[in-house]
Amino acid sequence: MTPDLKTTFRPVPPAPVSGASRGRDGVWALSRFVPQLEDEESVWLAEARQDAFEWVVDHGFPTKRDEDWKYTGLEPIRGIPFVPSAPRTDYRSVSTEIEARAGSFGGPRLVFVNGHFAPGCSRSGALPDGITLSAASSWRATGGERAQPLAPRTTRPFDHAFSALNLALSNDGAILRLADGAVIDEPIELVFFSDSGGSPVISSPRSTVVAGRDSSATIVETHVGAHGDQYWSNSFIAVVLEEGASVEHYKIQAESESAFHLALLDVRQERNSRFASHAVMLGSSIGRHEVHVSLDGSGSEVCLDGLYLPWGEQLHDNPILIDHAEPGCTSRQLYKGIVDGHGHGVFNGHILVRPGAFGTDATQSNKNLLLSDRAEVDTRPRLEIRADDVQCTHGAAVGQLDPDALFYLRSRGITEEAARGVLTYAFAREMVTRCPSEPIRDRIEKLVSERLTAMAHQPLGSPPRRDDSGRRGGARP
Amino acid sequence: MLRIENLRAAVGDKLILRGVNLEVPPGEVHAIMGPNGSGKSTLAHVLAGSDAYDLTGDVHYNGIDLLALSPEARAAAGVFLAFQHPMEIPGVGNLYFLRTALNSIRKVRGLDELGAVDFLAEAREKMKLVEMDPSFMSRSVNEGFSGGEKKRNEILQMAILEPSLAILDETDSGLDIDALRVVANGVNALRGPERSMLVITHHQRLLDYVVPDRVHVMADGRIVTSGDKGLARELEEHGYTSQGPADAGRPEAVGVVS
Fold this sequence. Notes:
The complex is a heterodimer of chains A (477) and B (258). With 477 residues, chain A is an alpha/beta fold. Chain A folds into 3 domains: 1-297, no CATH class; 313-400, no CATH class; 411-459, no CATH class. Helix content of chain A is 22%, strand content 34%. Chain A has a 10-stranded mixed β-sheet with strand order 4-3-7-10-12-14-16-18-20-22, with helices on one face. In chain A, strands 5, 6, 8, 9, 11, 13, 15, 17, 19 and 21 form a 10-stranded mixed β-sheet that branches. Chain A is globular and about 70 Å long. Chain B has 258 residues and is an alpha/beta fold. Helices cover 33% and strands 27% of the residues of chain B. Chain B is built from 8 helices and 12 strands. In chain B, the strands form 3 sheets. Chain B has a 6-stranded mixed β-sheet, with helices on both faces. In chain B, a hairpin with a 2-residue loop joins strand 1 and strand 2. In chain B, helix 5 (147-161) runs parallel beside helix 6 (177-189). The interface between A and B is large, with 33 and 45 residues.
């Protein structure tokens, strides 16, 4: 047995049942799942986990009274006794499902099942010089953390209970280290698959990317799960870009529509680095894709794209914080939502320009299309500017399909249903075309068009009735 | 044959068409002229199937009750409107749009759908007619097109969809003389014994190029005068004021649609 598998669950006395200790969302019951490491080299990690857990107990889960969680009710999560799953010994049974749901771009790939590394489904292939890709468990076991400690650079005070809980419960995740000047063209895939196996499971993958000076890579995170399964994926990924580094990041969130997906993407950028992200939110019952970017070095550039497509009873929440801490940095945000059924989209984008960050150039745009009269969108663009000589713009729009454009298409013979589909897809297409990687763009295009086709084939809500005294020109077929 | 009888159109309490009567036989080109606000564009939109109006009256086209049809069914029946203000549709390629439109119509008519290659070949032929650069096909529908390019794109759509009743709503507006000539040549090339056209214009200028069989003058929601092509010249010289009868806006017309 390799040393990294010395992880054990510490036996604790039965969870207290008194109101006081249960009051924190019953989270106390999870304490016995905080992984303990016997490996002496990793004492720091054991301590960090314990501290993180105590942070969760002290602060509790956020509620709608917390400004950043105003629209995202967590009652459904609180009510379910989620527990972490043990690592499996055999991943063959799920590998077919993983292939079917996550696809593959042919490059290096790490697969995690319920937060545990699944070596049988993964492949690292022949990586170019200077690139290390491994599971965090193996990284620690082989002394990687000791030789090149990544954790101190990728840990900062917790924003909320979920990032703390992720650290407390995390067993594994991906570690990607790009040495100075290292370049990899093939996209590196990180697949997070969840499969409750019948009882509610929480998975807590915790990943780290450190891109050395002038290095460059493309990373794809895919989050998927067994169809209709109820689980909770609480993911964290830290990305550090050193001077001149460039990272293109993709996230495809296609979890089970009964699942909960809470994720934090935490990015820190040094001088003249460039980070671009393209996120597509399709799955989960409650999905929250949170992005924090600290522009800690002058001349750095970040571009965040997001497309969320909630329908049914889905909630997709997109909190963003871009922290312009240094002069001369550029940030771009473009988020689009298409909301159908009783779906709910939230955009909560915050740009902070700190004193001294002169020459900041920040733009933020959020556009939403409501396809049903029960669909809901909350959009909150926020600019907080504490420096002079900055350029910041923001805008938000919520609307329905343009009736004039619909009429135009229909007057050319295109049926109403097809015309709605064409216009809806056109709205989403901009986000797809902004993905530079062709195979990833193709995959995103396929997923998005499948969702939009499914939306289009739902029965349309009854059109509002109008006075029928006169005959209407646009009689419906 | 298009036959419009006592067509009235209202938006809320506002009556815009106050009883239009008009017949356009097959193969004829009729011009509708009139001042701004006389209801010309409303008539065009009503014929194409806009649902923005409450309607009474009858419109029959080749024996079909046009007002009972959806816009797409009218297109399949051969009706085409060249818009005064063509919509910009970002994200929808012009080629895809035109092929989807043509194939939707072909499908209703029981014809096989045209493949991408065959369609492109046909579209290229038709583009020559309106002197359009093939690069327009790979752009989004009307997005970033100049006024003249949009109008040419309308005529291109007409050439591809081959309607039997084409309604041109102020196709000449905003065109310089060269663009006007190109558009007019495109329209003239599409004239034929089976194709009727209703050319709506504010100015007589277009009618120098597209010579109509009949000219009608609209004022206050009705056709007040009809004549041959000479009428257009008269209007240019004397203006519309001499044409509109004093009773065109009589209050008795209000409230018919209630």
